């Protein structure tokens, strides 16, 4: 695919060579036939249907959509064929045009500045940014020590405990003074300020969407998102589950009867109506939560991994429609006065499961983690059910048996896993279910991030990328990306005009790109490129900037660096007698006139290296360090 510039931004498409055979076969089959297009039921699928119709020259083809591959749903769809939805096709095309505009303009600008090959993208760069920012939070994190005081006592039913709520002297409510904690730990009694029993209901988590399925499979089954999608694809194609690329967790209206029947056969109770869950604003219409195609099928799949994934999908979908779990909760608040006459608050909770509802179907404790802010750092399980707090009237007293001081440390934020990064992107409204796994693959291949023990680490190259883009390009700004997604939705709804929206993106992007290049003040023709010099004696590296015209020998603009930008007031002196550093400099080893300047930078392993010359002659390939101020000596010292 390529794209024309303004005002019309007309994309032109080309068939990928390896798909030629498929198309030839299709074009033979469609002759004189009635054609039904049954591509996936989403924006991407609508776009594919339109392209197929276009390439095959189909006249008014029929479009059928279904979210599961069962005989009944396919027959029903074929009985009521529709037309291709051109607003959807257009919204998808605008998204792709925008992706291309960003990729085609920003990636070369990065290469002009830093040399080598760089890639930037509308979705992939914000993803790298999140990983880089998390990396820096972790680097800057300083652990703080604080104290909890836990008071223990006895009731008729056993041991109870209360925890300190903070003494009001610290802004974040944490007690940081050991001496105060020690004084509180010897309190002999506390006055009850609140004590009440109530029933707490806990609703089940929603059926899976693409991202929550990837998240859960990552936590529970240790599957990478890409693997989860392959397994789900197989389950979908065998008719076991509904369509698995979705951002809406809700089930279709027609399933209530089947769900109730299966639940009751297993001895569970449903709520009687279909339970609805919040839908992200960006969710596509027509999407539904991932569910089994046949609810009575408790197990399905060809391989062990498929069966594990199916079991998780089945359980979660069924649980979503069962009764809430009910707990009897007793909450006690009490205050004590320490020797310094300061009143402090303690709180305790006793939580006993009364009726398990949906929890009977799930591993206790696992599901709650999926939707937590950082789902893979479960807090140490608090066994609130063992807390034997008695029922005490307000104003009554509790006798303390003993107190304990617990020293705690604040913890650094966790690195993202692939799955939790996808969840975050979805929450931010960046990217779509069909593309998440592909985006992750790309940013790993480009070495902006790396996966170590299932956690994403930012590489120095990734940090360099974000330093270059952040604050200069709107598309790495999550708020801007959300705003643009809303405009795209406006196109899909027929409210916004395609060319006006694209024109506004384009103008802003062009401004940003032209502001990104540092023009060479010597020749005023070419931009400056960032270089890394290395001092061979000390091994220290430093940044500087050289005119791109240097390669052709027609400009010798070179400048020192200041905070990542060229310092135009500090030109680097080139020795007058130095030969023009061009490909005409002969290789000291083989004599071939094929030396090429490689601009230095940061290796994937994080080591900075200086600019060097490489001999391009076949069977030579020798490398020589560059010395920016003493070019005459440059190609003599061999890179070790
Ligand atoms: Zn120049
Ligand atoms: Zn050579």
From TrEMBL:
InterPro entries (UniProt xref): Topo_IA (IPR000380), Topo_IA_2 (IPR003601), Topo_IA_AS (IPR023406), Topo_IA_cen (IPR013497), Topo_IA_cen_sub1 (IPR013824), Topo_IA_cen_sub2 (IPR013825), Topo_IA_cen_sub3 (IPR013826), Topo_IA_core_domain (IPR023405)
Superkingdom of origin: Bacteria
EC number: 5.6.2.1
Gene3D superfamilies, alphabetized: 3.40.50.140, Topoisomerase I, domain 2, Topoisomerase I, domain 3, Topoisomerase I, domain 4
Class in the EC hierarchy, top level: isomerase
Cited CDD domains: TOP1Ac
Topo IA-type catalytic domain sequence ranges: 85-513
Keywords: DNA-binding, Isomerase, Topoisomerase
All residue ranges annotated as the Toprim domain in the record: 1-71
GO biological process, one term: DNA topological change
Pfam family, one: Toprim
GO molecular function, one term: DNA binding
Protein name as catalogued: DNA topoisomerase
Source organism per UniProt: Enhydrobacter aerosaccus
Lineage: Bacteria, Pseudomonadati, Pseudomonadota, Alphaproteobacteria, Hyphomicrobiales
């Amino acid at each position: 695919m390529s794209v024309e510039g303004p005002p019309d931004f007309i994309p032109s498409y080309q068939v990928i060579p390896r798909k030629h055979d498929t198309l030839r076969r299709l074009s033979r089959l469609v002759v004189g036939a009635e054609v039904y297009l049954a591509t996936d039921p989403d924006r991407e699928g609508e776009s594919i249907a339109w392209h197929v119709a276009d390439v095959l020259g189909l006249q008014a083809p029929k479009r059928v959509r279904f979210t599961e591959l069962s005989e009944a749903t396919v027959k029903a769809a074929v009985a009521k064929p529709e037309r291709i939805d051109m607003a959807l096709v257009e919204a998808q095309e605008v998204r792709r045009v925008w992706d291309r505009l960003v990729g085609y303009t920003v990636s070369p600008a990065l290469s002009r500045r830093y040399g080598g090959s760089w890639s930037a993208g509308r979705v992939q760069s914000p993803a790298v940014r999140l990983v880089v920012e998390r990396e820096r939070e972790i680097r800057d994190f300083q652990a703080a020590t604080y104290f909890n005081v836990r008071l223990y006592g006895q009731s008729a039913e056993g041991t109870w405990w209360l925890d300190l709520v903070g003494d009001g002297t610290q802004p974040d409510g944490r007690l940081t003074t050991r001496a105060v904690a020690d004084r509180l730990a010897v309190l002999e009694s506390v006055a009850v300020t609140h004590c009440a029993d109530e029933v707490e209901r806990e609703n089940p988590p929603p059926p899976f969407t693409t991202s929550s399925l990837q998240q859960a499979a990552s936590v529970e089954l240790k599957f990478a998102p890409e693997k989860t999608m392959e397994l789900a694809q197989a389950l979908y194609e065998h008719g076991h589950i509904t369509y698995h690329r979705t951002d809406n967790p809700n089930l279709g209206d027609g399933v209530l009867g089947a769900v109730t029947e299966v639940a009751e056969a297993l001895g569970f109770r449903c709520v009687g109506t279909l339970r609805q869950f919040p839908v992200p604003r960006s969710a596509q219409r027509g999407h539904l939560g991932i569910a089994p195609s046949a609810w009575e099928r408790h197990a399905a799949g060809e391989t062990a991994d498929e069966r594990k994934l199916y079991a998780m999908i089945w359980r979660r979908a069924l649980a979503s429609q069962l009764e809430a779990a009910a707990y009897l909760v007793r909450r006690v608040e009490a205050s004590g006065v320490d020797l310094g006459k300061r009143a402090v608050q303690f709180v305790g909770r006793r939580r006993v499961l009364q009726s398990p509802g949906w929890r009977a179907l799930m591993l206790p404790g696992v599901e709650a983690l999926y939707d937590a802010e950082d789902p893979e750092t479960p807090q140490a399980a608090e066994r609130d059910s063992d807390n034997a707090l008695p029922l005490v009237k307000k104003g009554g007293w509790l006798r303390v048996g003993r107190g304990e001081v617990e020293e705690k440390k604040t913890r650094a934020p966790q690195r993202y896993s692939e799955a939790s990064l996808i969840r975050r992107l979805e929450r931010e409204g960046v990217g779509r279910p069909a593309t998440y796994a592909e985006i992750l693959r790309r940013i790993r291949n480009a070495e902006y991030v790396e996966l170590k023990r299932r956690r994403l680490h930012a590489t120095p190259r990734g940090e360099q990328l974000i330093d270059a883009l952040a604050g200069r390009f709107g598309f790495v700004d999550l708020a801007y990306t959300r705003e643009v997604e809303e405009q795209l939705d406006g196109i899909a709804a027929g409210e916004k005009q395609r060319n006006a929206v694209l024109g506004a993106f384009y103008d802003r992007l062009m401004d940003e790109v032209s502001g990104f290049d540092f023009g060479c003040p010597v020749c005023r023709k070419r931009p400056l490129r960032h270089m890394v010099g290395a001092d061979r004696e000390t091994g220290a590296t430093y940044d500087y900037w050289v005119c791109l015209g240097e390669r052709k020998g027609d400009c010798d603009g070179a400048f020192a660096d200041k905070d990542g930008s060229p310092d135009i007031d500090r030109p680097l002196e080139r020795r007058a007698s130095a030969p023009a550093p061009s490909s005409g400099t002969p290789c000291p080893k083989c004599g071939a006139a094929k030396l090429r300047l490689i601009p230095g930078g940061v290796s994937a392993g994080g080591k900075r290296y200086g600019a060097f010359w490489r001999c391009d002659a076949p069977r030579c390939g020798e490398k020589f360090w560059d010395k920016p101020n003493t070019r005459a000596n440059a190609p003599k010292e061999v890179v070790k």
